[in-house]
Amino acid sequence: MDFTQILNSDLGKQIIDGIGQKTGTSEKETKAVVTEGMPVLFGMLQKNASEKGAAGILDALKQHDGSILENISGFLGGADGADGEKILGHILGAKKNDVEKAISQKSGVDLGSVAKILPLLAPIVMGYLGKSNKSGGGMDLGSILGGLMGGGKSGGGSDILSSVLGGKGGDILDAVTGGGKKGGGLGGMLGGLFGGKK
To answer: What are the domain boundaries of the chain?
Structure first.
């Protein structure tokens, strides 16, 4: 199941309705931000996994095993966004605000609402990845993320992701991947955030 199928499923409706109620955004606004934001987050994780950063992500998934998906409303009811802010910060680094602005411009939703929605979406994305990883049948993390991205054929977020991963957004790529430096980027950051936890 790729992210477009997730969004069109009952789970997707729960996610959109729940986040909308929590943030006070309309269904249309919430869906627009989630549609743009979900592939960006999956895509950034996929980029890291392809650059030998899978260990850091796998360690993070020990904290995000998919159980969050069993009670979306319960999670959102008690969520304050703190965990999601940490996840976003470690995925996007210093360019988090740039990505939020890009999603705001693409979705047509004000920046303040985007900044409220993404921290609630991030733990759900990690939870879905954790669930997919557990049921992956021996598939490597990069392949699982590729499937969630729709094999690169899905819409939604593709322009933003392209900018983040290269082209006009090359500086963002350096911030996320560590500019090719060993130990930099998402793998090192996620490892630093979750690596010490058991």
So the answer is: 3-194
